[in-house]
Design goal:
single chain, about 5% strand, mainly alpha, about 160 residues, two-stranded antiparallel sheet
């Protein structure tokens, strides 16, 4: 909105006989300007805001799916290493019992040094393999807990 008052509105010039002379008619101006796109621009702004909201929602859903896939993938790794750890623990126990028997047999003179060394080497190799699997298991557990933010046992026990 705008208005206009001119100098002659406040201090009108007069004729010689004392009558005011109106040089401008009307003595004041008032105007209102309305842009043509006033209503359509608001509609466009609303459309753009809705589209931006839809894009943000789609990006949020995509990120959610990526996180879910990552968690499930890490969980599968965790389960694999857990199962390998259980199997390897059994193999180490078997190798330990074979070694103890070989140690007893070697002390009794039933087997030779080479057989004893083979059983010792087999037990050692299985223990090294167990340590590697234990390491992989612990790393997969740590990575999974990092993603989910709580200990794995808490989630598994709450199911």
């Amino acid at each position: 909105a705008q208005g206009n008052l001119n100098e002659f509105s406040f201090n009108p010039p007069t004729q010689t006989n004392g009558q005011p002379v109106s040089l401008y008619y009307p003595r004041y101006n008032v105007g209102v300007s309305i842009p043509f796109d006033m209503f359509s621009s608001k509609g466009n702004d609303i459309k753009i805001a809705r589209q931006n909201l839809g894009i943000a929602q789609a990006q949020k859903n995509e990120r959610f799916r990526e996180i879910k896939a990552e968690v499930l993938s890490r969980y599968e790794d965790y389960l694999l290493f857990k199962q390998q750890l259980e199997f390897q623990s059994q193999v180490v126990q078997d190798a330990e019992s074979i070694y103890q028997q070989a140690e007893k047999d070697f002390a009794d003179g039933i087997i030779k040094q080479e057989d004893y060394n083979r059983s010792f080497k087999g037990r050692s190799e299985e223990k090294v393999r167990l340590a590697e699997i234990m390491h992989s298991y612990n790393i997969s557990k740590i990575e999974l807990e990092k993603l989910i933010g709580v200990p794995v046992e808490t989630v598994i026990n709450n199911q």
